[in-house]
Amino acid sequence: MIIVTDGVANHSNRLFQNIHFEAFCKDHGLFFRNPSMYDIAPFYGIKPWPFDKFECRVYAALERRNLFHAMNFDDGMGNREETIGRLGRHGIHFVTGWLFKVKDLTEKYHDYFIKKYTLLPRFYEDSPLYRQFVSVDTEKFARIAIHIRRGDYKTWEGGKYYYEDADYLRFIDRMRELVRSELGKECLFYIFTNDKVGIAGEGITLSDSPWYVDQLVMSRCDYIIGPPSTFSLWASYMGRTPFYHVKDKEYVFTLGDFEYCRG
Questions:
Q1: Which of 82-96, 185-199, 208-222 is the least confident region?
Q2: pTM score of the predicted model
Q3: Is residue 6's pLDDT more than 80?
């Protein structure tokens, strides 16, 4: 049995953390629990155990008092084969951390995870954004997700992934050029952000929906562009939607630079 005792950061990070441990368990026939998913599991029709939240608090309290230690894959353990091998043995293994990665298995079980972690329709089917999105004539238009993330990105990694409105407008113009020339379509852009932006115009929609609706709609776009972020990666994984993470704003990207996330 493997139990995840602590989720990593926000919902998207936690979903990725979850599927790597879950994929490992599924492939090795191990029982799996992740009580740290208690608050987001209902979005996917997964009923949490009644005491999941309390259980996570107990783990945290015991950790602070040095009375309990989960196997933390961020403590220099990485993805060593012998460490992974230990998890396959009998007994209960308490785990946490971000660096446990089994990408071959998240790809192997991709369809399984898409089915399990697709947002329930009741959370998005009445959304004005979703209704507008599904009304688009996809024979004429390509739907492009633009993920704008600022906030902590102004200082994280020296601000190298912090882009101004003018930068995103150039990305938008580049996509229009590519889609027209290579696909023979016009573009409709959907901007997803928690920050104030000054980007507006014909064919541009700025979402004010909850994060889970944004991520669902983003997953169903034709292409995703934005800075490196697990938010857009999860959307790409769930929709097999080609994404391009901008790491150099001066680079002139092509449609060949887009790929979908495999876990």
A1: 82-96
A2: 0.93
A3: yes
65: exposed, middle or buried (Cβ count in 10 Å: 0-12, 13-18, 19+): exposed
Coil/strand/helix, residue 128: helix
Of the candidates 96, 56, 50, 41, which has an alpha carbon nearest to the alpha carbon of residue 73?
Answer: 96
Q: DSSP letter string over 59-124?
A: HHHHHHTTS---EETTTTTTT-HHHHHHHTSSS-EEEE-S----HHHHHHTHHHHHHHSSPPGGGT
Longest CA pairwise span in the chain (Å): 63
- pLDDT tens, position by position, 211-240: 999 999 999 999 999 999 999 999 999 999
Mean pLDDT score, 27-31: 91
- According to DSSP, the β-strands at 243-245 and 223-226 are parallel
Q: How many CB atoms lie within 10 A of CB 199?
A: 16
Residue 156 to residue 149: CA distance in whole angstroms: 11
SS3 sequence of 165-224: HHHHHHHHHHHHHHHHHHHCCEEEEEEEECCCCCCCCCCEEECCCCHHHHHHHHHCCCEE
What three-state secondary structure class fits 141?
A: strand
What is d(CA 21, CA 18) in angstroms, rounded to the nearest whole number?
5
How many Å apart are CA 138 and CA 133, to the nearest integer?
A: 10
CA separation for the pair 39, 160 (Å, rounded):
32
36 Cβ neighbours under 8 A, 6+ residues apart: 4, 5, 6, 7, 14, 52, 56
Residue reference for tokens 């989720």: 7
Q: Comparing C-alpha atoms, which of 85, 98, 203, 88 is closest to residue 141?
A: 203
CA 207 to chain centre: 17
